[in-house]
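tool=predict chain=A
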Amino acid sequence: MIPDIVRAEFDSCNAMLDAQEVKILSLPQVGSAHLDIQGRQITVSGIEGPTEITIFSLMGQTLEQHHVSGKNAIVVTDIPTGSYIVQARSRNNSIVQKMIVR
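tool=predict ok
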C-alpha cells in the first residue's frame, strides 16, 4: 500500500536532496480499459457504466457514434473499407485505437 504523503526534497534539477511533504494522488489504473477490434466487431472491456463508442475518419470526421450500456460489443456495418480511429469513452475512462476495415 502506498502512503498518501511521503517526504522528499528536490533541487532545481529534480534531484532528491532532503525531505518535504509531497501528496500522492491515486489515479485510475492505466491499461484497465481495452478495445478488441476483430473485423467489423468492436468489443469494449474494462469500462463500467454507459459508454460512447465513436468512429472517426483519419481526418477527424465523426462517422458513427454508438451509446452502449450493459452490452460491450457493436458491429459496424455502414462504413467502407479503410483505416479509422475508434474511441470508447465513459465517465471515468477513455481509450483510442486504430481500426482497419477490409
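The chain has one domain: 29-101. Residues 29-101 form a domain with the Immunoglobulin-like fold (CATH 2.60.40.3080).
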